[in-house]
Amino acid sequence: MKKILVVDDQYGIRVLLCEILQKDGYKMHEAANGVQALKIVDQENPDLVLLDMKIPGMDGLEILKRIKEDNPQVEVIMMTAYGELNLINEAMSLGAITHFAKPFDIDDIREVIKNSLAVS
């Protein structure tokens, strides 16, 4: 069973993604901040991380860098608010596979996750 970690400081988004993706047959983990996220990546070794760009404290780019340093095999998909294009380019250069703008279409996310995990 593939494991997915959702990292977002917004509780509602974490719950929504975890509920829907669990129904798709993934084992879900969630983190509200970078420290929790990195701990879960170390302990659970997820196949994919859905990572919000704007998180208080350690931001999404910093979390992405740290995940990729120790776990280059983990796929990361960024979630961003509208208009953070410069950050997206940086995230892609750091190894993110793609990104979604919020508010997102949940079916788009499910499709990309399915495709990403089918390849890995």
From TrEMBL:
Gene3D superfamilies reported for this sequence: 3.40.50.2300
Identify the InterPro entries for this entry: Bact_response_regulator (IPR050595), CheY-like_superfamily (IPR011006), Sig_transdc_resp-reg_receiver (IPR001789)
- Which residues constitute the signal peptide according to the record? none
- One of the Pfam families matching this protein, by short name: Response_reg
Keywords associated with the record: Phosphoprotein
**Chain ranges of the Response regulatory domain:** 3-117
Kindly list the positions at which 4-aspartylphosphate occurs in this protein: 52
Mind telling me which SUPFAM superfamilies this protein's record contains?
CheY-like
**Database matches in SMART domains:** REC
Name the chain's protein: Response regulator
